[in-house]
Design goal:
It is a single chain. With about 70 residues, the chain is mainly α. It has two helices and no strands. Helix 1 (about 5-25) packs antiparallel against helix 2. The longest helix is centred in the middle third of the chain and has 30 residues, at about 30-55. The radius of gyration is 17 Å and the shape is rod-shaped.
C-alpha cells in the first residue's frame, strides 16, 4: 500500500488521533478504531523515517545519493 502523505502530514494525523482519544468523548468502539488508525500511522511514520535514514547512510562522498529502489 503506497502512501502519498508526507511525514509531517502523518504526524499531524497521529496527533489528532491522540487528542480525540484523550478527550474521552468517543465510545469504546470509536476509541478502538482511532487507536488502530494511530498505530497504522505510527507504522507508516517509522517506515518513512527508516527510508530517509537508509538514504542518508548511502550518501556518497561526492554528495550524491544512490536510489533505494532502482526502478
Amino acid at each position: 500500500m503506497e502512501n502519498d502523505k508526507t511525514l509531517e502530514e502523518m504526524m499531524q494525523e497521529l496527533e489528532e488521533c491522540t487528542v480525540r482519544i484523550e478527550a474521552g468523548e468517543m465510545s469504546l468502539e470509536e476509541s478502538f478504531e482511532a487507536f488502530k488508525s494511530g498505530m497504522e500511522l505510527v507504522k507508516q511514520c517509522n517506515e518513512s523515517i527508516d527510508k530517509v535514514e537508509k538514504q542518508v547512510m548511502m550518501l556518497m562522498d561526492d554528495g550524491t545519493v544512490e536510489p533505494l529502489d532502482k526502478e
